[in-house]
Write a structure and sequence with these properties.
This protein is of the alpha/beta class. It contains 30 helices and 16 strands. Helix content is about 45%, strand content about 10%. The chain has a nine-stranded mixed β-sheet with strand order 1-11-3-10-8-2-7-5-6, with helices on both faces. Strands 13-14-15-16 form a four-stranded antiparallel β-sheet. Strands 9-4-12 form a three-stranded mixed β-sheet. The N terminus is likely disordered.
């Protein structure tokens, strides 16, 4: 049940506040340790060194495992970010907390959370997340005094994210305002597709970019841990958990969401701190549903009401498993195949090393003998497989999922799929449907590479065979929009909305398509309606605000555009693009003070927003401050070399500041950036020659 871990040094123990195992029951609130929860998006357990990956570069995560307890067989309930995190923070399975997918669902405000319990107990609480999927609209922000979800707006059709270094930077800023005991939750998104680690990890792992993302994340985690440990005065309980894994081609799945195999369901789970056994490994099957109950028990706090998970506190102290005790049951599910592609949803149960997956073609596996799940024992071992199937059916019938107010259409869809009644026949088995995803992924990559026509060519036969594939219809709409075929883009977006009307992205794409049409010639061509529906479903949808404001500026004027962007501010959105557009509108109406404030806020949020530096420089020049204007233009030129910026800088230095030497450098730079056929080139060459003759 528990085996000795690898040897570790005193430095690791000091880092994590190690010591003898001391139960926390009865500990006074002021003496309770602070809690650091780190969740690793899309991270397979078997890609960490502490889980046996020999070529991993995860020394910081490995140090946590060595100084504490590693759970070898921890299960995620869903291979998706939002439902899995909802389980982790509530101790409830998805059918009870009712968050069943990344989009269209949010945590019920009456479901108690770990953060709420800790805040009630006197903890200061803060969170920094790295994906738009975990935006505060999800409902997970409850209980956190500060919830930093300022991720970047997506450049394409996929959710926004924030890289680990920027998340750690934001977390350290929050940490300065926390005093023990505190609860800090940090979420890293980096190993999510597409894999693009920064240097030096990109070069080091050029043939294994997924592992490079994990290595980069580990390095940033190390920086975070050192700072948090110092702030917690060595009284720190550290929890590291993966939300789900990544298939990486296993069973034909490139990423995650479709299947319930161990590649996506087995996740890292590490505990370390002053009250956790050191260098131990728990081999009994556990789940993320156990995380909140366990942490509250370790901290001596009351359990969350109606939690489905169990406290693992007693398990931590046992040297071996109790052979008389029945193994716990863990529920698995994914609605994603149904919502995204119109296939059958999947549900599963795991008891010990036995696993059952309900599907049109049921599956059963012995995870000890067959950890890669290659041999389906459904027909060979019908007795235990049937027992798990009955248990799963009883659980589904005992408490049906309760539709959210905004998701009645989603409930109707589930009922039509037979999910709520426990039936699973009559729809395409994801094991068969997965074969078609190769063409979908190629189309997605082609669109991302700017090859919209090729992407559309790949999607059209796929949709002819699978007209219920919502994601393909949405991607086709985006392709047609990129090809400037707005009417056809609108048709494809409508097809996607027919399959699921609560998709904010589909409403946005339809609105963008309608915005390009002549409303007099297009039935129901009302972009505003669909922009509003997108924002109604996601009040913090950055791209929807930006596109809506752009359309409103053209059709209704600057004041209407400004009102839309001000709504984004009122929704607590702090985003560089929102602030920049507000700055331009303020400049347009002659409000220099407000324009300057907005452009400065833009740079606070994104110091590399070149155009904001240029706008501030223009304002400084207009206010007769050429020295400041020159500094601002110089910064813009440094960030993004441009002949126009260099010429403007040179002119200010020469004619307003009398700095011939500086002007010479600027005009030389402009000459370097000017193409041979540029009509200004001859003038620049003459100017440089003249200045060279005058500057010593």
């Amino acid at each position: 049940m528990r085996s000795a871990g690898a040897a570790f040094g005193l430095g690791v123990l000091a880092l994590l506040g190690g010591g003898a195992y001391r139960p926390l029951a009865g500990t006074e609130a002021a003496a309770r340790p602070s809690l650091l929860l780190v969740t690793l998006d899309t991270t397979r357990a078997d890609r960490l060194g502490c889980y046996g990956a020999r070529d991993a570069a995860t020394p910081n995560l490995d140090a946590v495992a060595a100084a504490g307890t590693r759970f070898d067989r921890a299960l995620a309930p869903v291979p998706l970010t939002l439902p899995s995190h909802a389980t982790l923070l509530t101790g409830r399975v998805p059918r009870r907390h009712q968050v069943r997918d990344n989009a269209g669902f949010r945590l019920d405000p009456h479901t108690p959370t770990l953060a709420e319990r800790l805040r009630e107990a006197g903890y200061l609480t803060a969170a920094c997340v790295s994906s738009a999927v975990l935006d505060r609209v999800s409902g997970l922000a409850r209980g956190f005094e500060t919830y930093d979800d300022a991720v970047d707006a997506p450049a394409g059709p996929f959710p926004g994210e924030r890289v680990a270094s920027r998340t750690v930077e934001a977390a350290l800023a929050r940490l300065e305002r926390l005093s023990p005991p505190f609860f800090l939750w940090i979420h890293f998104f980096d190993p999510h597709d597409p894999y693009a680690p920064p240097e030096p990890w990109r070069t080091r792992f050029r043939d294994r970019l997924y592992d490079g993302e994990i290595a980069y994340m580990d390095a940033e985690f190390g920086k975070l841990l050192r700072a948090v440990r110092a702030r917690a005065s060595d009284r720190l309980l550290v929890v590291v958990a993966g939300d789900h894994g990544e298939s990486l081609g296993e069973h034909g799945e490139a990423t995650h969401g479709v299947f319930l195999y161990q590649a996506t369901q087995r996740v890292p789970l590490l505990l370390a701190g002053p009250d956790i056994p050191q260098g131990s490994v728990v081999t009994e099957t556990v789940g993320l549903v156990d995380a909140a109950p366990t942490l509250l028990a370790l901290l001596g706090l009351p359990a969350l009401p109606a939690a489905d998970g169990r406290s693992l506190r007693d398990l931590l102290q046992k040297e071996r498993a109790d052979p008389e005790r029945e193994p716990a049951l863990y529920e698995l599910e994914t609605f994603y195949p149904a919502f995204a592609y119109g296939w059958a949803p999947l549900r599963g149960l795991v008891r010990g090393h036995w696993k059952y997956i309900e599907a049109p073609e049921p599956e059963a596996y012995d995870l000890l003998a067959d950890p890669e799940e290659r041999r389906n024992l459904w027909r060979e071992r019908p007795e235990w497989a049937a027992a798990l199937a009955r248990e799963l059916s009883q659980r589904a019938e005992a408490q049906l999922p309760r539709a959210q107010p905004e998701s009645e259409a989603r409930r109707a869809q589930l009922e039509s799929l037979g999910y709520l009644s426990g039936a699973s026949g009559g729809t395409r088995d994801p094991k068969r449907g997965i074969r078609s995803l190769a063409s979908f992924e190629r189309a997605r990559q082609a669109l991302a590479a700017g090859q919209a026509e090729e992407a559309a060519r790949l999607l059209e036969p796929l949709l002819a065979a699978q007209p219920g594939n919502r994601r393909a219809w949405l991607l086709l709409a985006q392709c047609r929009l990129a090809m400037d075929r707005a009417p056809e883009a609108a048709d494809a977006a409508r097809r996607a909305l027919e399959l699921w009307s609560a998709d904010p992205q589909a409403h946005l794409v339809l609105a963008n398509a309608l915005a390009r049409l002549d409303g007099a010639n297009e039935k129901n061509a009302d972009p505003a309606s669909h922009y509003e529906q997108a924002l109604g479903l996601n009040p913090r949808y950055v791209q929807a605000y930006l596109n809506y404001a752009s359309w409103a500026l053209r059709e209704r004027g600057p004041q209407a555009s400004r009102e839309i962007l001000e709504r984004a501010r009122r929704a607590a959105l702090e985003h560089a693009d929102i602030e920049f557009e507000l700055g331009l509108l303020a400049k347009l109406r002659g409000d220099r003070k407000e324009a300057r404030r907005a452009f400065e806020k833009t740079l606070e949020l994104d110091p590399e927003a070149v155009q904001a530096w240029i706008e501030l420089a223009e304002l400084a020049y207009a206010e007769n401050d050429p020295a400041r204007a020159a500094r601002l233009y110089a910064r813009a030129l440094e960030l993004r070399p441009s002949a126009e910026t260099a010429k403007t800088l040179g002119a200010i230095l020469l004619h307003r500041l009398g700095d011939r030497s500086g002007a010479l450098q600027a005009f030389r730079r402009a000459l370097e950036l000017t193409s041979p056929g540029d009509p200004d080139r001859a003038t620049l060459e003459s100017l440089v020659q003249e200045l060279e003759s005058r500057v010593p």
